[in-house]
Amino acid sequence: METFSISNLDLVIVLVYLAFIIWWGLKNGKSSDSQSYFLAGRSMPWWVVGLSLFAASISSTTLIGQSGDAYHTGIAVFNYNLTGIVVMVFFAVFLLPLYIKSGIFTIPEFLEKRFDRRSRYYFSAICIIGNIFLDAAGALYAAALIIKLILPDADLQLIIIVFAIIAASYTIPGGLSSAINAELIQAVILILGSILLTFYCFQQGGDYFYQLFASGDISVKLIRPLTDTATPWLGLIVGMPVLGIYFWANNQTLVQRVLSSKSVDEGRKGVLFTGFLTMLTLFIIAIPGVIARHLFPGLEKPDMVYPNMVLQLIPVGLLGIMLAALLSALTSTLSAILNSTSTLFTMDFYAQYNKNASSQKLVIIGKITSCVIIVAAALWAPQIGKFGSLLKYYQEMLSYIAPPVVAAFLLGVFNKRVNGNGAFAGLLSGLAIAVVMLFYKNKIFGDMHFLLIVPFLLTVSGIVIYLVSMCYPKPVAEKLVDTTFSMRELKAEFRANRALVWYKNYHSWAIVLLVLSVLIWIIFS
């Protein structure tokens, strides 16, 4: 593995930044009661929600994985983000109001309000396991690999422990308020640092990208043939939206930031703000990844593209800022996962077990749970390098588990006839199908791209949910309050928003987002 040196000035900048983040997170923490600790008192304005959501979504997978994928296959990986922006508009209009009005702490709790406890426990358990052993451990491992480039003799486990302590030091004492306030700083540094990197990247290899674009090279096209191994065009329509809903609308780590907003309108504007920020990733992640082909040809591991760009293109002094930006993405993701996972366990399991637990008791349990989670993730993280194939299987299984969950949420919101028995049967059948797919995918679907398999799984799960529901009585009326879509309420809201000046109406920004998304697809088609 190639190693790089870092100046004392850059090292000081990084250390000062890390110290500041810890101090800032602790200074802005709230842990007086469960609502303050887990949902920041439901008091966040739209711009805080948006920045926090963006910082939490830019994980090691996004920053390192997407730039590596762009290096390997071109900008088509940006389709996940662009489809995600369309999903954000759908989420803001239809699902977000129900989440906030129902007063939930966790996304699995919504399943209980709409269906029953079985669905809540199942989904919460899936989320907790994935958050600890895939997301949190993955973030720690990615951070350790970057530090190993600079300090090759440093012990991998020691680096992981240090990063775990950094994220835990402000997230555990201060809860979601600490995480969100730290993410505000991290989001700004991440955006500015990424813009800085893009500038130096274009300065040294911009002509290469312009030549690719002028020649119509496949690497700078978002719309690919059906036979494309990266993102076949049909997958953008039938597969990506389903996975996008799971990521943006069913993901506790991200939705928890939206639940902290002080109103439905603030939450909506925050999500749409995140959409505009996510659009920037085309220019600060995907395109630089393509340019890196010209600057660093022949890299054995595409995932090392982003660290190579940071360490080789940025001059002394600014390198410290860029490393701080890179570490921002990793630590903000880790703190987000840590807080959301402790919320899941505390509210979905402990609070159900001990219904008389005080608000302060729940906060204490949340802090203890966070400690257990970070220790488990830190212990597992070094194993990722040894069992990469298992993780690939696990990631693939998650992509099979997502469609049944999305089917349960969509049918639950838009169909008042489906009930708890149907939802639970759909989730369990989805799990059974995922296990079968894990071992017999090639025999069933051959070499079909997984994005094209997703709609089959969604359809099967949806049919099971509906048919089983029809075998049992309709849900009681209370199960449909603040959990199902109402056209009457949507029309009333549209009429009320007409009276607002255009820039205060979230509909205006939703339309702008959708138009920009279409334009980008046209330009890079």
Automatic annotation (TrEMBL):
UniProt-listed InterPro entries: Na/Glc_symporter_sf, Na/solute_symporter
Superkingdom, natural source: Bacteria
Alphabetized CDD domains for the sequence: SLC5sbd_SGLT1-like
Gene Ontology CC: plasma membrane
Its membrane topology: Multi-pass membrane protein
Cellular compartment(s): Membrane
GO MF term set: D-glucose:sodium symporter activity
Main subcellular localisation: membrane
Key words, A-Z: Membrane, Transmembrane, Transmembrane helix
Family from the record: Belongs to the sodium:solute symporter (SSF) (TC 2.A.21) family.
Name of the protein this chain belongs to: Solute:sodium symporter (SSS) family transporter
Species of origin: Bacteroides cellulosilyticus CL02T12C19
Higher taxonomy: Bacteria, Pseudomonadati, Bacteroidota, Bacteroidia, Bacteroidales
